[in-house]
Amino acid sequence: MEFSNISRKEDGTDADVPLIYKSADGSTDLLPTTAIPKWRVWKNHLAICSAFLFTFTAYQSLQNLQTSLN
User: Within this chain, do residues 53 and 41 fall inside the same structural domain, yes or no?
Assistant: First the structure.
């Protein structure tokens, strides 16, 4: 699957080009897009932020434990 690399018009301004791919048989079709609900975006954002918070909290705790043992 190859994506088109057209991002500018001939006059240098940005083009409103939809995402297009070329399939193995040579035909080009628009990529299917679906709307993502806002709550799902926030849920994913919260999950990633929580993962980083817990990861770096554990890392900091292990650093404090190491300095207290040495």
Answer: yes
